[in-house]
Give the backbone structure.
Amino acid sequence: MKEKTLVSTFTLIGSLASYYYSKSHAKDVVPYVMIGGFIGAWVGEIISNVVIKKDNDKN
């Protein structure tokens, strides 16, 4: 899987999860979506670095 795709997927998941959380608790959506997207991108970067490192170790 490509790094760009992995990071984008986790960013989307984080944003949508935080959007759902803020809507269900009647909070302002924008700050939660921004923070959720940032955390999702961060997790995606960490996971992609682990995956790429494993791929490089195999070769």
